[in-house]
Amino acid sequence: MSDExxxxxxxxxxxxxxxxxxxxxxxxxxxxxxxSGGILLRETIKKYALSIFRALLLFGMCFLILQPIFNKIAVxxxxxxxxxxxxxxxxxxxxxxxxxxxxxxxxxxxxSLFNTIWVSALVSIIQVFMCxxxxxGFARFDFPFKNFWxxxxxxxxxxxxxxxxxxxxxxFHYFDIFGIFKAITGQxxxxxxxxxxYILMCLGCMGLKDGLYIFxxxxxxxxxxxxxxxxxxxxxxxxxxxxxxxxxPGAKPILTSCFLFSFVWQWTDSFYTELFLGKIKMLSSEIxxxxxxxxxxxxxxxxxxxxxxxxxxxxxxxxxxxxxxxLIILYLFVQKQFVESLTTTGVKM
Amino acid sequence: MSKKxxxxxxxxxxxxxxxxxxxxxGFLLFMVQPLFQSLKMSLSDVNISTSGxxxxxxxxxxxxxxxxxxxxxxxxxxxxISTMIYQSLATIVFSFFVAMILNQEFKGRALVRxxxxxxxxxxxxxxxxxxxxxSLMAGLKDTIEKQGNSNGITDVLEKILLAGQTNAxxxxxxxxxxxxxxxxxxxxxxxxxxxxxxxxxxxxISPSMYEAADMEGCTKWESLWKITxxxxxxxxxxxxxYTIIDFFMKTDNQIMEKINNVMIVQLNxxxxxxxxxxxxxxxxxxIGISSLIIKKVVYYYE
Lengths: 349, 302
Fold this sequence. Notes:
heterodimer, A: mainly alpha, MetI-like fold, 18 helices, B: mainly alpha, 77% helix, 3% strand, globular
């Protein structure tokens, strides 16, 4: 830029010293530059340099995020031979779908994918609806001890579920309400193998990161105009139907974001899944045991054979790709609303 | 309608309580109760039988065991806490920096934004743990480094910078710094939500402030320190707490692994909840102290 600038400058100086400028637009810049004593040129160079620097930086950071995915995709298409071949870096020499077939078998992909979809969808719908109720209550009503309860919401965000996991585990293993079941059947209920405890927890806003959703939704409702609500009340709408008909549709952007967060986090969550949904085959719990299953599978089919670590990692990479592909497809569809709603209206602290 | 009339304020209060009732019930049943139970468990021996479980008080034996008898718990706690502190600091700085860039106007901003938010998806749940244990990539890197006989950029830099240094303290600082740079991938993946929070904070600053500062001859650098940082300082606090908790709950956390292992494999419920409580209290103290310090510097505009 600067070299070019100097030569250009000379040419312009030579040609335009005696003549009138022919193309006003082009020459205008240099004239203005001279008039400003070189500041304009310096500023322009600075501007371009900054944007080039920024582009490089952003490219690097995007690469940092995307590279592992590309790497995994590449590895997942390689045959085992390619892993030991040092000339193969990204493009597989022996292209194969075998990894996908094997991983699908090991993960029991169709069953667990189906389970994961409906469990995640159900859980996130319940979570978002309950959190919207509670968030609305906090944003719009005045009642005694409101600050105390809101402090409890913050506490829920802060207290990690791991602290109470031990007792939750036992709590649901020997579930009982005031000893009623024990009196009737002589034994407490073991609820741990069903989905019920988790649904109950979500209904009570104690699911995965529910405190955060309550907080976000409350902040959104607080900035919502009062007039709409008042108009609804004047027209004879009850409190609950006002909430359902006026407030919920109005809060669509934040509800979408919360739903997406909840869906994605539920999809990949292993903590609650292992604690409560042990019997249901879910992708996140299947993937963590995939290495062992690969070993058993290979011993069963091929007899005595140790799984090399590289091969194990390859299957794991394929599994990860298979888990995140549905999420990425979902993300591509709703990406625009998601990003816009979060950055413009979303999290206001 | 001959009953006593309830005023509008009271009626609103009752409706408000009805709205937050699910939360209150859930909080009492699934948070307060288990919390107390786990505290009780941590103070006693837990015996499991088919009909239920019994607890006997054992004079803080679980806590004493965690600190004095268990060979690895103290060391794990120290490493995890120190990693937590410097990684959280790095995450905050990184996400603020990225949010500043993403807040500017440039071509392809939507694309870059969506890639950064993709990190939110990719850094959740099991996927983190898998990434962490990815020995294939680590192995590949090792072989490449050996074959090419080249070192990482940070290694080279470290050698250059430390060549003339004999001071032990500065060496340590550099070591930590390079450790952070080496773990930039973890930091980038962990800062998805923080970037969103900072970004929404940045967009809430009214542009007229910057205009006014510009008119008065304030440079960009000055307006960064005089406008952006004070205006966004409450969000620093929020992000800091969020980052620490996020780190606390990560699945690849050594202590959490140990706690789960003790609980599920060894069935030692008392000891595992004692460890969970120690960890929890240490982190709470950390959050409390640091937010008190940060609160001193935070500037509230309204």
